[in-house]
Design brief:
five-stranded antiparallel β-sheet; 493 residues; Alpha-Beta Plaits; Beta-Lactamase; alpha+beta
Length: 493
């Protein structure tokens, strides 16, 4: 039972250690995970801020460029309104348009290709372009959009110049008579330079401008110019276009293929959008790698601890088994199998010890069961065994935990104890009563002869044994003399 308790105790201790170690590991892994998410959040905010700054910077430059063109059209329209009111000739108006076209080209750094107008049924071109005979100004988009704009400057849908490969836009405005229109074409090459420069000096991987229909007006990658992302399928541009239609804010993240992107959009003139796109795949992968390695290491440590604990448990179990086996061997070596008392081998070792150093108040009692031989002869050895076992039980019951009881031979027992309080007489009386009242399978009461050897100043253990043995035989002789029985007869049958 003690071995089992010790095994259980060791097992619980190992489990407790494992739990504590695991909790410590989980605690530190938890701290690392929290730190990771804090770092992730901070990195995300920095990326969003970078994209926002790029988009705002780009949008500001684009708005400034477009507003300059708007100012040119408004100023030209204002002057033409005065000339119409003053009923100036078309020649004067054409001369003004030619001068204004030169001025606009200078103001717009060569990106204005000329100012033209349709006044009182005549087409006037500031750069001298002469249209074909089938050219009808009132059917052109610049004229129709301007009329629909009711006096406001409108941006006509951009178009790709087949000769230069440049995206062009037209700004147009109706004049005071409500039927005349002034317009100018502007190259968006400057917008292309803006997007390319933002990518070079900023934190974005892509920068581009979409019109209201999600057509690419300018892009840091020139190969994307004039594509309609809304009509494409399976491309990153199409994925961004779709996300723009469902996102209310200016920022969103997007997974496309095996990559992750952060996109920031900024509205500009004419319902256009300026977008900054940042590829965050490698950034967050670098952040996730230490976290993943930490979790893997923690898992390996826990696995190793489990392995060690299992091996330790197996070793402990084996050790406990060996200890239990050793205890069993000790029991067989030092205990009498019939009575459970210590045997003669244990007595011999105790004899040697006490022969060297005899404690004060030490006493020895020798017991001899009366009539064992006659019981064996008349009733059989099973009855004799019952007599020996009964005698051992009665002696143990009478003396309790006081001293050690040894079985020295067939019917002979020895008790070695210290008796400073002189309890021996009372214990012997209990023994006599218990033996006399015994009732078993074969026996109905029995008796035990005994003799005591008490410590005396200067005596040794051998002297105590001789005294006890002498007193026991005297007691046994008195028993047979008073009972009138032969020493070979049954005790009580």
């Amino acid at each position: 039972m003690n071995v089992d308790n010790e095994t259980r105790k060791n097992g619980l201790s190992a489990i407790h250690s494992m739990i504590v170690t695991t909790l410590i590991i989980v605690f530190f892994v938890g701290i690392i995970i929290i730190y990771y998410f804090m770092l992730y959040s901070e990195t995300k905010d920095n990326i969003i801020t970078s994209g926002e700054l790029d988009a705002v910077s780009s949008a500001g430059q684009i708005d400034k460029y477009l507003s300059t063109g708007v100012d040119v059209i408004r100023l030209t329209g204002y002057t033409l309104d005065n000339m119409i009111t003053e009923k100036r000739s078309h020649e004067e108006m054409l001369d003004y348009l030619e001068n204004q076209s030169v001025a606009a080209a200078n103001i717009m750094s060569g990106n204005a290709t000329g100012i033209y107008a349709y006044i009182d049924g005549d087409y006037l071109d500031g750069v001298g372009w002469v249209p074909d005979a089938d050219y009808v100004p009132t059917e052109r988009p610049w004229y129709k959009d301007a009329i629909a704009g009711s006096g406001d400057v409108v941006v006509v849908e951009p178009y790709l110049d087949a000769q230069t490969g440049t995206i062009m836009i037209t700004l147009a405005k109706t004049l005071c008579d409500g039927v005349s229109v002034v317009a100018a074409d502007f190259s968006l090459e400057q917008l292309q330079k803006i997007t390319e420069n933002i990518v070079l000096v900023g934190g974005s991987d892509m920068q581009f401008i979409l019109d209201e229909k999600h057509r690419v007006i300018a892009h840091s990658d020139k190969n994307e110019i004039d594509k309609n992302y809304r009509k494409e399928e399976g491309t990153l541009g199409h994925a961004i276009s779709e996300q723009l239609t469902v996102t209310e804010g200016r920022f969103f993240s997007l997974n496309h293929g095996a990559k992750q992107y952060f996109v920031y959009s900024m509205p500009i003139e004419n319902k256009w959008l300026c977008l900054s796109v940042i590829d965050t795949t490698l950034v967050f992968r670098r952040l996730a790698l230490p976290l993943l390695l930490t979790i893997v290491v923690a898992a390996l440590v826990i696995a190793i601890l489990l392995f060690i604990m299992i091996r330790s448990d197996k070793k402990s179990a084996l050790a406990e088994k060996m200890k239990k086996l050793a205890d069993i061997q000790t029991i067989y070596a030092y205990y009498d199998q019939m009575t459970g008392l210590k045997n003669r081998r244990a007595y011999s070792e105790e004899f040697d010890r006490l022969s060297k150093e005899l404690p004060k108040d030490c006493c020895v009692i020798i017991f001899d069961v009366n009539g064992l031989k006659s019981v064996n002869d008349s009733m059989g050895h099973e009855a004799g065994d019952e007599l020996i076992i009964a005698a051992a039980k009665c002696i143990r019951a009478a003396f309790g935990e006081q001293g050690d009881i040894y079985r020295l031979g067939g019917d002979e027992f020895c008790l070695i104890m210290t008796d400073p309080e002189n309890k021996i007489p009372g214990c012997l009386e209990k023994l006599d009563h218990a033996a006399a009242e015994y009732k078993g399978k074969y026996l109905n009461g029995f008796s035990v002869s005994y003799g005591t050897g008490l410590y005396k100043e200067g005596s040794d253990f051998g002297a105590l044994l001789k005294e006890a043995d002498k007193n026991m035989y005297e007691n046994k002789n008195r028993y047979y003399m008073t009972s009138g029985r032969d020493r070979r007869s049954s005790p009580r049958s």
